[in-house]
């Protein structure tokens, strides 16, 4: 019976190299983290209800009790977005949430560039980050073969 030393076993067993991340993938992760951090900041505001959130909800015409519901919905979407396997589903939920923000701000005639379109900018930024992380999404929308 032959015995092998741990060094011989380690040398004989191929070690799987960790997949290398491209610069685009790293940029996508950074963008996704920034978007996620901003959205978590929004969630914290909705759940803790500081005076600025109370005033903002009143200005938009929402009862303050709905802040908790909005915060929980957004938190759920962000968590789903943060999980790589379900990121697209989370991005769709966040897109719907941001669409509601656009509509609410349009209803009160908020400034277009700085307020109404901010949610659009954030959504576009989020999708850019996701596509950089998962370039195969371009095939789904027909932008790449």
Walk me through what this model shows.
This protein has helices at residues 6-12, 23-48, 51-60, 66-82, 87-107, 112-133, 137-140. It is 74% helix and 0% strand. It is elongated and about 80 Å long. The protein has one domain (23-140). The chain is mainly α. Helix 2 (23-48) packs antiparallel against helix 4 and helix 2 (23-48) packs across helix 6.
Task: Summarize, please.
The chain crosses the membrane at residues 26-44, 64-83, 88-106, 112-132. It is built from 7 helices and no strands.
Spell out the key features of this protein.
transmembrane, DoxX family protein, 7 helices, mainly alpha, elongated
SSE string, helices as H and strands as E: HHHHHHH
Average pLDDT? 91
Structural class: mainly alpha
Calculate the terminal CA-CA distance, rounded to whole Å.
56 Å
- The helix content, as a percent range, equals over 70%
- Main sheet: strands, sense, barrel: none
What's the number of helices?
A: 7
Number of domains: 1
Q: List low-pLDDT spans.
A: none
Shape: elongated
Cα-based radius of gyration, to the nearest Å: 22 Å
Please tally the β strands and state the result: 0
Strand content: under 5%
Membrane topology: Multi-pass membrane protein
Pfam family, one: DoxX_2
Keywords: Membrane, Transmembrane, Transmembrane helix
Organism: Gordonia asplenii
